[in-house]
Amino acid sequence: MLWTIISIILIIWLIGLVLEIAGGLIHLLLVIAGIIFIYQLLTGKRSL
Fold first, then answer.
1. Distance set, CA 40 to CA 15, 19, 43, 44, 45 (Å)
2. What is the pLDDT of residues 1-48, one digit of tens each?
3. Half-sphere exposure of 7 (CA within 13 A, CB side)
4. What is the DSSP string of the chain?
5. Which of 15, 19, 20, 37 has its CA 20 to 30 A from that of 46?
């Protein structure tokens, strides 16, 4: 589930970078996804 969300956000971020659409919002979502990813790694919880 987590990997799916991260993948979707990365794809949307790449599209936003190429088309220059909603840059601030997409970067904010990417930062949030990164924080969640790091938290999951540190706590050892895996949702694969």
1. 26, 31, 5, 6, 6
2. 777 887 887 787 777 777 766 666 767 777 787 888 888 888 876 555
3. 4
4. -HHHHHHHHHHHHHHHHHHT-SHHHHHHHHHHHHHHHHHHHHHT----
5. 15
